Amino acid sequence: MTPQDAVDLGREALLIATLVAAPILLSGMLVGLIIGLMQALTQIQEQTVAFVPKLVAMVIALAFALPWILEQLLDYSQTLISNIPGTL
């Protein structure tokens, strides 16, 4: 295995991790932005008001995205394991 192969494996792992985490993080960020705007408009600055809706949105996003996430992780793992003989 050359150093370039190791860099490529690391880059691909980071890309997959970013893609897998994106739907959950984006939903939390979007809900947090909306709740932050609502808090600024109403001047209610309670921390739990922002936490609970973000948590619920992230769980819902995870429930909807879980089949796609598992598919991406399985594809990556299968490709990685099948390329082991070629990298040794």
Number of domains: 1
Cα separation of the termini: 6 Å
Question: How many whole angstroms does the radius of gyration measure?
Answer: 19 Å
Number of helices: 3
| Secondary structure: number of strands | 0
Structural class: mainly alpha
Folded structure, characterized:
Helix 1 (3-42) runs antiparallel to helix 2. The chain has helices spanning 3-42, 47-82, 84-87. It is elongated. The N and C termini lie close together (6 Å). It contains three helices and no strands. The chain is mostly helical. Helix content is 91%, strand content 0%. The longest helix has 40 residues, at 3-42. The protein has one domain (3-83).
Layout: helices, strands, pairs:
Elements: H1 3-42, H2 47-82, H3 84-87
Helix pairs in contact: 1-2
